[in-house]
C-alpha cells in the first residue's frame, strides 16, 4: 500500500489527525473546538447509536428529549454540580436583540433540567422507577480540543433515572455499566475495557459514586469511554424529587445518570487503527463487505456481472455490503481508500481471477488475500467477519496486557505510566499520592477489587488502582 498516513510509531497524534482527514471521518468546524462529522464517520456513529439504543431499551429505559437551554439558576441549586461545570459552560445572555432576564446555559449535561421535570412527574412510589434516556448534543467549552476526543460540542446519550431506594439506584447504575456499556464496548467495538470505580477526585460533579469503562489506546494511554453515576439524593433534594412511600410517608428519590458519546469513535480509531487506516470491527461496520470491480471485461459474464451477483448474494446472506464499480478511477487508489475506511472484507473481482473461477477475498484485520472460488465467496466472507471480530478484540487485549505492569509504589506507577498502565495497591497511593501523580500528568483511572470486580467504595480494603496518562 502507498504510504498515506504518518506512521503511528513515529507520531501517534499526527497519525490520528491524518487518519481522520484521509478517511474522511470528520473536519474541524468553523468555531474553535467544534467538529463536522462527515458521512463516513457518522455512519459508524449511527451503528454505535443503534447498538447502544437497543441495549438501553432492553434495560427498561425510554427515550425522551429535553431542552438545549437550561436556566442558569437550575445549575446553582446543586452546588458541587455547578462548581464542577463552571469552567466549561457556554452562557447565553442575549436573545432576540435583548438582554435576557435570566442567563441560560447551553446544555453541558441534563441532570438539572431533567430533575425539574422528574419532580413534576413523580408523586407516588408507583411512579418509580422512572427510567429516561435522551440522544442529544451537549456543549462544554474545551481549552484543548481534539476531534472526537474533546470537542466543545459533541453528540451523546445521557440516561437519567429515579428510584425508591439506594440499592435499586445502585443496581440500575451497575446494570447500565455492564449490560449496556461494557457489553457494547467489548462485544461490538472489540475494545477490552477495564470497569471500575472512580476516586472521589475523579468522580462526576454532584455524584456519590462514578463507575467507568477505561480502554487502552494504541500509544498506551487510557481513554474513558463511558461512565455511570450514582447521584444519591443530592439532585432529588435540590429539585424536590419526592414520592409518597407505600407506608404513607414522603421520601426523596435516589437518582442515577450515565452517558457515552462520540468519544467512542476516537477510541475506536486509536484502539484498532494501524498505519493503513481504520480497522472497524465487523459487528460495528456500516459496510462489512466491499465488492470491488478491479477492471471490467468485455461482454456478459464479465467482472461487472459477477460482482453484482456477489453483491446480491452477500446482501441476501445478511451482510452489510457495498459495490464499487468506479472502473474509471484507478483500482490502487480505490483500494487505498477502502483500507483507510477500514472495511472488514474486500471482495476483488477482476478478469484474470474470474477466468480461473475466482474472486480475491482481502481481510482488513491481517491484510491477507485469498483467491476464492466464486461459489465459496459468501461462506468465506461470513467466516472472516466472525473470526476478525474476535481477532481485533484479542489483539487489543494482548496489547493492554503487555503494557500493564503490577508495581508496589507510587513512584514505580508514575514511571510505568510513561509507556502504559500501572496497577498498584490503592493503599500505596491514597489521596495525597493521587494529587502527586496528577501534578505529573498521571491520573488514577479507576479502582478495582483484588478479583477485578467493581468496588462499592474507595474505602474498601485491598483495592488496586490503575494509573495512567489519559486523553
UniProtKB/TrEMBL annotation:
Cellular component annotations (GO), alphabetically ordered: aminoacyl-tRNA synthetase multienzyme complex; cytoplasm
Record text about domains: Consists of three domains: the N-terminal catalytic domain, the anticodon-binding domain and the C-terminal extension.
Biological process annotations from GO: prolyl-tRNA aminoacylation
Reaction catalysis annotation: tRNA(Pro) + L-proline + ATP = L-prolyl-tRNA(Pro) + AMP + diphosphate
Keyword tags: Aminoacyl-tRNA synthetase, ATP-binding, Cytoplasm, Ligase, Nucleotide-binding, Protein biosynthesis
Assembly: Homodimer.
Enzyme superclass (EC): ligase
InterPro entries: aa-tRNA-synt_IIb, aa-tRNA-synth_II, aa-tRNA-synth_II/BPL/LPL, Anticodon-bd, Anticodon-bd_dom_sf, Pro-tRNA-ligase_IIa, Pro-tRNA-ligase_IIa_arc-type, Pro-tRNA_ligase_II_C
EC number in record: 6.1.1.15
Protein's recorded name: Proline--tRNA ligase
Record family assignment: Belongs to the class-II aminoacyl-tRNA synthetase family. ProS type 3 subfamily.
Top-level division of the source organism's lineage: Bacteria
A Pfam family: tRNA-synt_2b
Annotated function: Catalyzes the attachment of proline to tRNA(Pro) in a two-step reaction: proline is first activated by ATP to form Pro-AMP and then transferred to the acceptor end of tRNA(Pro).
UniProt domain Aminoacyl-transfer RNA synthetases class-II family profile: residue ranges: 32-281
Subcellular location: Cytoplasm
MF (Gene Ontology): ATP binding; proline-tRNA ligase activity
Amino acid at each position: 500500500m502507498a504510504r498515506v498516513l504518518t506512521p503511528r510509531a513515529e507520531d501517534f497524534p499526527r497519525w490520528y489527525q491524518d487518519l481522520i482527514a484521509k478517511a474522511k471521518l470528520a473536519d474541524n468546524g468553523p468555531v474553535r473546538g467544534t467538529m463536522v462529522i462527515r458521512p463516513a464517520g457518522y455512519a459508524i456513529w449511527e451503528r454505535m447509536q443503534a447498538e447502544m439504543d437497543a441495549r438501553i431499551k432492553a434495560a427498561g429505559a425510554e427515550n425522551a428529549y429535553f431542552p438545549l437551554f437550561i436556566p442558569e439558576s437550575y445549575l446553582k441549586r446543586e452546588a458541587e454540580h455547578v462548581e464542577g461545570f463552571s469552567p466549561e459552560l457556554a452562557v447565553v445572555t442575549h436573545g432576540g436583540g435583548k438582554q435576557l432576564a435570566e442567563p441560560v446555559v447551553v446544555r453541558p449535561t441534563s441532570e438539572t433540567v431533567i430533575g425539574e421535570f422528574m419532580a413534576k412527574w413523580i408523586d407516588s412510589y408507583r411512579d418509580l422507577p422512572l427510567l429516561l434516556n435522551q440522544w442529544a448534543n451537549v456543549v462544554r467549552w474545551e481549552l484543548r480540543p481534539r476531534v472526537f476526543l474533546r470537542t466543545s460540542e459533541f453528540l451523546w446519550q445521557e440516561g437519567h433515572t429515579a428510584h425508591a431506594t439506594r440499592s435499586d439506584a445502585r443496581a440500575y447504575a451497575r446494570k447500565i455499566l455492564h449490560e449496556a456499556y461494557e457489553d457494547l464496548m467489548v462485544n461490538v467495538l472489540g475494545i477490552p475495557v477495564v470497569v471500575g470505580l472512580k476516586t472521589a477526585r475523579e468522580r462526576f460533579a454532584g455524584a456519590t459514586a462514578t463507575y467507568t469503562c477505561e480502554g487502552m489506546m494504541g500509544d498506551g494511554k487510557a481513554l474513558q469511554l463511558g461512565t455511570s453515576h450514582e447521584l444519591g439524593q443530592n439532585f432529588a433534594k435540590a429539585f424536590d424529587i419526592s414520592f409518597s412511600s407505600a407506608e404513607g410517608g414522603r421520601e426523596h428519590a435516589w437518582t442515577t445518570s450515565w452517558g457515552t458519546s462520540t468519544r467512542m469513535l476516537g477510541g475506536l480509531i486509536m484502539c484498532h487503527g494501524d498505519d493503513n487506516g481504520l480497522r472497524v470491527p465487523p459487528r460495528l461496520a456500516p459496510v462489512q463487505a466491499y465488492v470491488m470491480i478491479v477492471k471490467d471485461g468485455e461482454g456478459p459474464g464479465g467482472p461487472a456481472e459477477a460482482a453484482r451477483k456477489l453483491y446480491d448474494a452477500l446482501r441476501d446472506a445478511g451482510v452489510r455490503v457495498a459495490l464499487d464499480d468506479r472502473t474509471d478511477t484507478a483500482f490502487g487508489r480505490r483500494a487505498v481508500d477502502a483500507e483507510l475506511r477500514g472495511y472488514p472484507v474486500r471482495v476483488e473481482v477482476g478478469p484474470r481471477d474470474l477466468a480461473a473461477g475466482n474472486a480475491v477475498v482481502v481481510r482488513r484485520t491481517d491484510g491477507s488475500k485469498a483467491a476464492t472460488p466464486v461459489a465459496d465467496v459468501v461462506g468465506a466472507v461470513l467466516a472472516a467477519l466472525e473470526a476478525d471480530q474476535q481477532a481485533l478484540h484479542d489483539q487489543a487485549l494482548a496489547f493492554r496486557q503487555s503494557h500493564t505492569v503490577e508495581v508496589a509504589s507510587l513512584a514505580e506507577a508514575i514511571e510505568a505510566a510513561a509507556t502504559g498502565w500501572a496497577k498498584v495497591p490503592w493503599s500505596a497511593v491514597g489521596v495525597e499520592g493521587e494529587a502527586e501523580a496528577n501534578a505529573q500528568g498521571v491520573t488514577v483511572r479507576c479502582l478495582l477489587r483484588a478479583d477485578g470486580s467493581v468496588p462499592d467504595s474507595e474505602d474498601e480494603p485491598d483495592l488496586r488502582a490503575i494509573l495512567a496518562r489519559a486523553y
